[in-house]
Write a structure and sequence with these properties.
alpha/beta, Rossmann fold, disordered N terminus, 20 helices, 30 strands, GMP Synthetase, Chain A, domain 3, single chain, 30% helix, 7-stranded mixed beta sheet, binds adenosine-5'-monophosphate-propyl ester
Length: 655
Amino acid sequence: MSDQSRDTIESLSHEDRTFPPPAEFAARAQIQEAEYRRLLALAETDYERFWAEQAQAELQWIQPFTRTLNDREAPHYQWFEDGLLNVSVNCIDRHLPDRANKPAIIFEGEPGDTRRLTYAELLHEVVRFANALRGRGIKKGDRVVLYMPMVPEAVIAMQACARIGAIHSVVFGGFSGDSLRDRINDAEASAVVTADGGFRSGRVIELKAVCDRIIGDCPSVHTVFVLKRAGNPVTWSPARDIWWHEAVAGAGADCPPVAVGAEHPLFLLYTSGSTGRPKGIQHSSAGYLLGTILTMRWVFDIRPDDVFWCTADVGWITGHSYVAYGPLAAGATLLMYEGAPMVPDPGRYWQICERHKVSVFYTAPTAIRALKKQGDDYPARYDLSSLRLLGSVGEPINPEAWMWYHTHIGHGRCPIVDTWWQTETGAHMIAPIPGVSTLKPGSCGRALPGIMADIVDNKGDPVGAANTGGFLVIKRPWPFMLRTVWRNPQRYIDTYWKEFDGRYYVSGDGAKRDADGYFWIMGRVDDVLKVSGHRLGTMEIESALVAHSRVAEAAVVGRPDELTGEAICAFVVVRGTRPSGPDAEALTQDLRQWVSEHIGPIAKPAVIRYTDNLPKTRSGKIMRRLLRAVAAGEPITQDVSTLENPDIIRQLQGD
Ligand code: PRX
């Protein structure tokens, strides 16, 4: 953990508005007060029985489990380990024939094209692509990397992997070739699934071209499946590349699902930490799926007639749990939109809600803030009466943005579920139950039944008192937790369990809990940034910067930003003389482009400052806290007596 995390965490925010569940909503809600109390009490008194009952009730097992939790190799916990199941059967086949003609996916492309797939059609597509994978020798346990636009085939490919027990790893389409290559190689993937291109912000994002640039450095990959989406020209390597439509044309329409153990890895998803390269978070099959189904019911109150829209890309955990798996497992109708919120204008999201009668809408505070900034006229142009529930995820939502969302999108009628969770937690952990919980703008509410969240001080003792900041930890294992870091069990232990001697799962977030038991997340306490809700490690960006020939040293910190939550601020020491004037401007352009190529456009520093030295302690540690204050334009209040080079402060401040 960073130096900052050692300090007492003070919280200054104060918010006392409350919103009880609207009577009409509460009356129809799936989870009512009595059931909520029953779930909480059962989890408290008989934790394992609680989870066993959920897993028996919610999942379709090929072979039922007899053991609930195995903690012999803690923190490598195993859940329902002797059970067998298939995840795609739990998401699709189980709804047939009853829901054969119910839309599973409603898709809208950025150019405005739309498509609907019923549950029967989805099964047909999944089976054919599963057979296409098998046709290329992909089998249970093999890794398949997806680098796709937000189109139904992304979900189809994920489900097809699940059907045959292959492990998918989706790489966000906005990541660069270098990032894609590193993830493919870490996972040792046999195949990649991509598209010629996808539509985003009025442009074609050429995914296949990015793939082509790096695939020569990925010796494990023998096949690249290419979906024709944008119609842009592509180069072709006949021995390796195969069009999606050709691969499925000859594929059989029957693919018996492969039974996998409950603990069989369903997917890897790479995410940034405070040290080293992104790590492959490994999720299980049964426990993970259980988390997504339960939270679809508990938190999203999902009903048969809902049209559920989560705006997250499948490249992030939110797009896994609440696009590719949860909504289907719950038998809902899922809306997928390919493009950006501002295309052709900032009314696009609201137009989609009107056109497809979206009833549950889930997005990130960054998007809410950006759309709020465009004014109230855009949502006012559309009929949003189909909406009944709104959600927020990815970063703390400031009360002003919450109020705007509540008033202008939810028209005061829709509860807002602010959901706290992480790539590692698999599904919501702390979130309101919309028919029961009174909402407080800016708080994600109480921990869900069976989730033992607490706040501890830096010795690991619960802070106890209300409104005292500390580290957010989870005290007991839960079924949808990550299982390990792919091929790096030590890193799993070091990152999540070491801090308090294995007593708790350490989230890396700071938080406080108020007198009503509501959690207020205060942000990361480590060197992880949240830029537009996307998670980036400062070290990754620093490594990219120092790989540039002119850069000798770099330190990256976050700076509060009204729209993106945090903005990336880089302090750079160049080789030779410190640049100024046009040279500095040109280098800044160059470095921004460089980072974009190495990681992806989301990692581009918003600000780059050049300095002769970085502020370091006498033991050589960069004083990040100081840099954070400088980046935020705040006065320096911390003790600088340990600074090796105190004169540097004025230069950093831009004097
Ligand atoms: O800092 C917390 C923040 O996002 C982090 C997890 O990021 P990631 O793994 O990318 O997953 C994002 C989507 C689940 C957390 O450690 N975070 C997530 N949700 C919230 C949040 N911060 C405040 N409120 C939330 N609702």
